[in-house]
Design brief:
Largest sheet: 2 strands, antiparallel
Structural class: mainly alpha
Distance between the termini: 21 Å
Strand order of the largest sheet: 1-2
Shape: globular
Helix content: over 70%
Radius of gyration: 21 Å
Order of helices and strands: HHHHHEEEEEHHHHEHHHHH
Number of helices: 14
Oligomer: single chain
Length: 345
């Protein structure tokens, strides 16, 4: 059974390499880098919501936390290696604590959404109020609404003077997204992933079968937070400044819209949704005739009404209607193996 999945991974990697190589011919690497970062952020919510059934209104909290942890640590360490690691570990640890309280407390979906939203707003308000000189962590001043500028950006490990920027930084971000994608794919193919999908479909049944529902939800929640934290650190390096806006309600809402438009329950859907809508917002930002928020709201309403499953599931359904199978589905792979066997016979 490993053959089909190994082949799918190889095809995914090949397609990613081609896209990474061709994309700079059409769009600047500076713009592509932020699209990749947003794609990773959308992917983080797509994992916990689409595959774990956990609607989190606070993904921006982990994104902002990763960015701020990186900036603070980079100022204190003077290089980027440990700050990058901490930007992943701190949001994951915070999510473990928050998730344990929520999931072992057996809170309903509505309360989960409210709590994650409130946590995000608390962080937003707190960071906004840290403008005074007393708000210092080591050498780093939090800066309040002005944010934190002037920190060490990504460098070659062990060589703080060898900065990674421009085209090189684009390829680093693209490679990290591909690695995260493949690792999550492997996780979802594992027993842990299958149990998580079972919990999403029927939590009561999985509980009666003896699985610790709260533990698995907490771990999945933390993995999503770690990915969001990594995206936050990459964003900090891209923008070279972090501000409280990373924790804003608007940021949280956009991430949810990305996942809905791209398609929940798919791996590539939230990535494409994030990149596509972020690029649309970038293009709209170059004119002042239409408000971006209005356009995003209109897109959400249209998709909920006419394409509720999102773009990727709709395309997959169209493919199935046209060719009688889904690409890389189990049935597709089984038919190919059977036909190959007949050919050899």
């Amino acid at each position: 059974m490993q053959g089909p999945w190994a082949k799918e991974g190889a095809v995914t990697l090949a397609v990613a390499v081609v896209l990474i190589w061709l994309a700079p011919l059409m769009i600047s690497t500076y713009t592509l880098t932020i699209l990749i970062i947003y794609g990773m952020l959308g992917f983080s919510l797509g994992l916990i919501w689409g595959f774990g059934g956990i609607l989190c209104f606070g993904q921006a909290a982990f994104f902002g936390l990763g960015a701020y942890v990186y900036a603070i640590a980079a100022i204190n360490f003077g290089e980027s290696t440990w700050p990058m690691i901490l930007a992943v570990l701190v949001p994951a640890g915070f999510a473990l604590l928050l998730g344990a309280m929520m999931f072992y407390g057996r809170l309903g979906d509505v309360y989960l959404g409210v709590i994650t939203l409130v946590v995000t707003l608390i962080l937003f308000k707190f960071i906004n109020s840290t403008a005074g000189p007393q708000y210092v962590i080591g050498k780093a001043r939090l800066g309040g609404f002005n944010g934190i500028p002037g920190f060490q950006t990504l460098n070659v490990p062990g060589n703080p003077e060898a900065y990674i920027w421009g085209d090189a930084y684009y390829y680093v971000c693209a490679a990290l997204l591909v690695i995260v994608y493949l690792l999550v794919t492997a996780l979802l193919r594992s027993s842990f992933g299958r149990i998580a999908l079972g919990i999403r479909e029927n939590e009561v049944r999985m509980s009666l079968m003896g699985y610790d529902i709260a533990a698995r939800k907490t771990v999945l929640f933390a993995i999503g937070a770690a990915i969001a934290g990594l995206a936050g650190a990459l964003f900090a390096n891209w923008g070279e400044i972090v501000t409280p806006g990373l924790f804003s309600l608007g940021q949280s809402a956009e991430i949810i819209i990305w996942c809905i438009v791209g398609g929940l329950g798919t791996r590539v859907g939230p990535i494409l949704g994030a990149a596509g809508l972020a690029y649309l917002k970038f293009m709209l930002g170059q004119q002042s005739l239409i408000d971006n928020t209005l356009i995003m709201g209109l897109i959400l309403v249209l998709f909920v009404l006419f394409l509720p499953k999102g773009v990727v599931p709709a395309v997959a359904s169209l493919w199935k209607t046209s060719f009688g199978r889904r690409p890389f589905s189990r049935v597709h792979q089984a038919r190919r193996m059977r036909n190959r066997g007949r050919g050899n016979g």
